[in-house]
Structures are given as C-alpha cells and as structure tokens.
C-alpha cells in the first residue's frame, strides 16, 4: 500500500518523539508549569522544527492551552495538516497525541464475524471532504437504495474540539459542511443520500459553500430550515458526533461500525451489503441480490483525525 507524504511526516514525528522520551525530553525548563502557555508553545515549536522535521518542512503554531491530565496542549500545523501534541508539566516530555488506552469496540474482518440483531445497524464515520470517506459514501448509497429502511444505515461525522473551538481535519469549510449534512440528515432524511451524492459529484472543498443551497433546492430541501438548524443546533450536533466517535474510537475516515462492531473487510458495494446483511437475525429478501464487487477505489487508506 502506498504511504502518503502526510503519513510519512506522522511516522517521523512518532519515531523521533519516542526517541525524545528515551533520551530525557527536549530540554524545556523544569518548572514549565509556571510559564505561560505562549512560552510553552514557543519551546515546543522550536524543538519540533530544530529536531523532528525533515529539511524544508516547518511547523507553525495554531494554539496552546492547559490540557487534560496536567499536560499542556499545543496545536500546530505541518504542511496542510494539523496536529495536537502535549507537553508534560515539568517540560521534559513531548507526546505527539493523546491515545485512549482502552476501547471496548470489537472488530470484524469478514461479514461472518458481525453480531446479529433484529434490525441491523450501520454507522459510517467520515469527514465530509475526505476522498476515501466519499468513496465509501458512494458505495454505501447502493446498499441504502437496496435495503431502504429495513436496515438502519447512517453517516456520522468525525470532528474534534479544542477548548471552545470545533475542528474538522480539512478545515473550517469541511466543518461547516459537516454541520449542513447533519442538518439535512436530521430534517430531510429521505433526501439525504441523494443530497450527499450530488455534493460529492458536483462540489469541492473550495466551492461547496456557494453550491450546496442550489443542490438542496433542486432536491426539494428547505434551505432556510437547514440554515436555522446550522445556526441554532451546531454545537449540540457536533457534540453528539464527538461522543459517538469517542465511543467507537472512530478517528479514520471511513470507519464502519455494524452492530457495535468495527468492520475492516473489503470496500465494495457488495462487501458492504454482505456485512450489514450478516447483522440480521433474519435477513430481508433484498439481501439475496448481488451488488457490484468492483471497488470504486482499490485504496484501503483513510483520512486520520
């Protein structure tokens, strides 16, 4: 599998930051807990740029604050990607990210490992402009068109929160579109998948803010209702998405959860259909129909938050 430049950068950070732990840290003042967040951030960015990144690549500070568990939280950008790092209270250790040490979510690599329910439930976690998530959405639409409301299939959105600020991996435009799509799914569920398909095929991250209303109106979606939802329900909707992502440890787009089990099998429309149909105690007759086994993309990569 081809490793992207972003993932190489992450790998370099993880390896070298691990080395910094072994060698005793990066030499910030021992009483760093008494310094300002700005001073902590400056020390961190200076260290990252001087010691951790390849020549020609440079980190820039976004924000710094007192984080969880007595750590300082530092958000910075490398190329077009944002990263969250943490600095220990004594200034000696730098961590590339906070990773939950325990998850109760089971994993399945084939449809035969999916637990069964009376009505199968599938959650597709994505970011609205992650290309791999969009590919999964386009394939999943075939399953939705086949099964209809006989299965509970919904899209969930991977976002994060730092202080009072919500974030999506590809920036503010993506976060805004996450909210728009959540509102369409909530109030116009029967039009949601067609809306999603049109957004994926006719817009880009740079054009969606100007195009989504025209697409919605053409599908009979009340855009004033969507705008009201986006303005008044934004925080509650995003908080719910964060809670779900944390519950299932869903940080990569796409992540598919079927009956509370993460599915890690093939990425084709038929594989998705077989997986969710395996989640029924008594599968509906539609499960006997075969969908295309041709993957929209041969890639098994994802966008990581």
Average pLDDT for all residues:
81
Number of helices: 9
The total of beta strands comes to: 13
Tell me the overall shape.
globular
Query: Helix proportion of residues, in percent?
Result: 40-55%
Whole-number tally of structural domains? 2
Distance between the termini: 20 Å
Order of helices and strands: HHEEEEEEHEEEHHHHHEEEHE
Q: What do we call the CATH homologous superfamily of the largest domain?
A: Glutaredoxin
| Residue fraction in strands | 15-25%
* Main sheet strand line-up: 5-12-11-6-7
Q: State the name of the first-level CATH class of the largest domain.
A: Alpha Beta
- Class from secondary-structure proportions: alpha+beta
The description of the largest β-sheet is: 5 strands, mixed
Rg, nearest Å: 21 Å
Low-confidence parts = 19-24, 26-34
* CATH topology title of the largest domain: Glutaredoxin
Gross CATH architecture of the largest domain: 3-Layer(aba) Sandwich
Structure notes:
The protein has two domains: 5-95, no CATH class; 106-304, Glutaredoxin. A five-stranded mixed β-sheet has the order 5-12-11-6-7, with helices on both faces. 41% of the residues lie in helices and 18% in strands. The chain is α+β, with helices and mostly antiparallel strands and 305 residues long.
